[in-house]
Amino acid sequence: MRTQLELMRVGGFRRRKPRLLSVVVPVYNVADYVADSLDSILHQPLREVCALEVVVVDDGSTDGSAEIVKGIAAKDPRVTLISQPNSGVSIARHTGIEATTGDLLTFVDPDDILPRDAWSSMVKTLRRTGSDFVVGSAERVTLVNGEERRYVTPLMRRNHTRTRLRCRIEDAPLMLADVFVWNKIFRRSFWTDNDITFPERTRYQDQVALTQAFLAARNFDILTDVVYDWRVRSDLSSATQKRAQIANLLERITTKRQTVDLVAGSGSSKLMRTLRTEILPIDMWEHFRASVNPTTEDPDRYWSLLRGAVLEFWYDAGVPFEETTVPRGQRLMAWLVSQDRRDDLAALIETIDERGPAKGIEAFAAAEDLPVGL
């Protein structure tokens, strides 16, 4: 039950508009995208806040990105440009957070754009509920033969089927899968008081920071509104398109390990079970495929690292990958990794690619004595 002081604080927040919404935009070599991204930010209607500040941190760009932002800032005083030597997106975001002054805090990646009215319903909800932060849905946007295609990932769809207010993470454990910083608005005081941090020099820094946020929150709000357009770049430069690199795999393992440690610290067996069966396995299939791809960097080491991670996060932890909720083919791939059967994994993937998932998996399974769950 909330104290009278907490109720007064919530009531006070609801009676007035937040003074300022701060937006942090880390920039590194995105000259082809950053102007459109900032334009979508600066044209947001400010129905629920008094003002907007946009803190852009250029992280040592070499392609003219800083000059583009400088030109925009010269025309719009709401934009502040901070330049620093290349240090990685985590440090760039921390630099931006330290420079913000708003009541509320949000983030935008400079190769993405915002829908026409991304924030009004989010801020209005925070004023109503007094929650620590609010989460909206997002659409992935791709260009196929010049045609824009949009879709919502299955987990994003599951998490945003209905509006849920004043949630705790125990009430909505699958929200731990929402490892994106940009579809949320936080009270800045919540972020700083809980010392939420992005791990440095890793592609997957959001997962750790967002796990911290969900675990620390007294409550948060979940909306059905699409509040972010997540653009999938075609130049193969985004982190999610570099699975075959040793560094990528190591960073994935490290952030999963940090996430497990955070959830273990909560003492919740419910959250840990959800983490191991529904969240940690989500992206592993890309690494299973990479492990038998002939172009993968240092394939023997890659295989050893991947197998060690599969054993550590699932089998050694007492939750065999067969008990996860990912599709059957992915569970079968993980089992083959755990059994150190690299050639069989390659054969399975080849069969799936030739015959399709259903027929390929059945053809492989027919010749195997598979454990329960496969």
Describe this structure in words.
The protein is α/β, with parallel strands linked by helices and 374 residues long. The protein has two domains: 4-240, Spore Coat Polysaccharide Biosynthesis Protein SpsA, Chain A; 242-365, no CATH class. Helix content is 45%, strand content 17%. The protein has 15 helices and nine strands. It has helices at residues 4-15, 34-42, 65-75, 89-99, 120-129, 154-159, 188-193, 205-216, 246-266, 269-279, 284-291, 299-315, 328-338, 342-355, 357-365; strands spanning 21-27, 52-59, 79-84, 104-107, 133-144, 147-151, 164-167, 184-187, 220-231. Strands 1, 2, 3, 4, 5, 6, 7, 8 and 9 form a nine-stranded mixed beta sheet that branches. A hairpin with a 2-residue loop joins strand 5 (133-144) and strand 6 (147-151). Helix 8 runs parallel beside helix 9 (246-266), helix 9 packs antiparallel against helix 10 and helix 14 crosses helix 15 (357-365). The longest helix is centred in the last third of the chain and has 21 residues, at 246-266.
Helix and strand sequence: HEHEHEHEHEEHEEHHEHHHHHHH
Q: Judging by the overall fold, what is the CATH architecture of the largest domain?
A: Alpha-Beta Complex
Number of domains: 2
User: Would you tell me which CATH topology of the largest domain applies?
Assistant: Spore Coat Polysaccharide Biosynthesis Protein SpsA, Chain A
Helix content: 40-55%
Described by the principal axes of the CA atoms, the overall outline is globular
CATH superfamily of the largest domain: Spore Coat Polysaccharide Biosynthesis Protein SpsA, Chain A
- Count of alpha and pi helical runs: 15
Strand content: 15-25%
Radius of gyration: 22 Å
Structural class: alpha/beta
